[in-house]
Amino acid sequence: MTPASTGASTSVGAVATVPPSQPVSESRMSPGGPGYRRMSLALFLAGVATFALLYSTQALLPLISADFAVSAGDASWTVAAATGGLAVFVLPMSALSERYGRRTVMTASLAVAVTVGLLVPFAPSLGWLVALRALQGAALAGLPASATAYLAEEVTPRALVTAIGLFVAGNSVGGMSGRVITGWVAQEWGWRVAVGVIGVVAVACAVAFRLLLPAPKHFRPGSLRPRVLARTVRNHLADPLLRRLYAIGALFMTVFGGVYTVIGYRLTEAPFSLPQGVVGSIFLVYLVGTVSASAAGRLVGRLGRRGALYAGGGTTAVGLLLSLAGSLPLVLLGLVLITAGFFAGHAVASSAVGKTATVGRAQASALYQSAYYVGSSVGSTVGALAFHAGGWGGTVAVGLVAVAGVAAITLAGTRAARAAVVRPA
Question: Which of 144, 205, 264, 354 is deepest in the core (most CB within 10 A)?
């Protein structure tokens, strides 16, 4: 049986763990089946911990700027360093997961990340804070690609988009709760106590994750030889569809990273002048992302993958334009639409990567995650610089350019698909 049919990665000297008398499709997890709820909850909690830690300083940037007497652009490096560290290390960590197993790598990554998270509140300077955040991002690199590969191997194909949507929904809940909690805690006790609280919450999520996640049944150890890894990466990058999906993930995250890095500065300044706790509560709109990510499978069923990407990009663009208004309700509505469009587009693109790559799924997912978090780092930094130069309108302009890129790439994919249909055999 080929790796494509089993959902397993390319392997060397591996032994199948599925009993010969049981078809692979029947031994995989599906909604309502054994282990599915435990798996869903475990990866949901992993997603919560990942995003809560990764973006723990984002809602606190105005306070960090004031504490260290630095600009918005300088403070934004506490976000960009974490996402950049993840982007750099996600591919090596995915290679380790091919050899040592998805669950093992995810557990180790969370353990290191939460340990660093407990050290972050004690950073004596901005430089130390940025360094610790970079280390934390590098540790978290073992989660996203390994989780996607685990789902691709252990969940039935029909349930894959929904399962990945739940993991992404955990990301949205983690991002939301982390920002809301830090906002209110920081208002009373400062940003250091706030990030410390997030560290404790992440510890609880990490422990529950390890206790709940079912042992993999379809994983086959792969090779760690550099040549094998390089060949797998080259093959993925040579695939036009995967390249388009990687670019789409990066562009969606450029919008999202820029908007949510800068929104705190906009809302704490005139004409809104909101207190830190209220600004943190603005991130409750992440709940919309939880819903849209979970519904991504149904959206693809109705519109197709490219139709769903058009819908996600269009929704994001409308939200960006609405956020230019001087009315707080319209700004909030704009954030709702940006969040819904982003999480839907991300869930669709990331699940498409898992379906497209028939071998080396961890590397395929790692390349997507790398592009995705490069987009976050670029969005955080460029969005902050644009805000410094041209106000909120500058940040929105950066976002609209990225959304236009999503539309252009999706259109190119549509044309390529049509050309493939009419091309004679």
Answer: 144
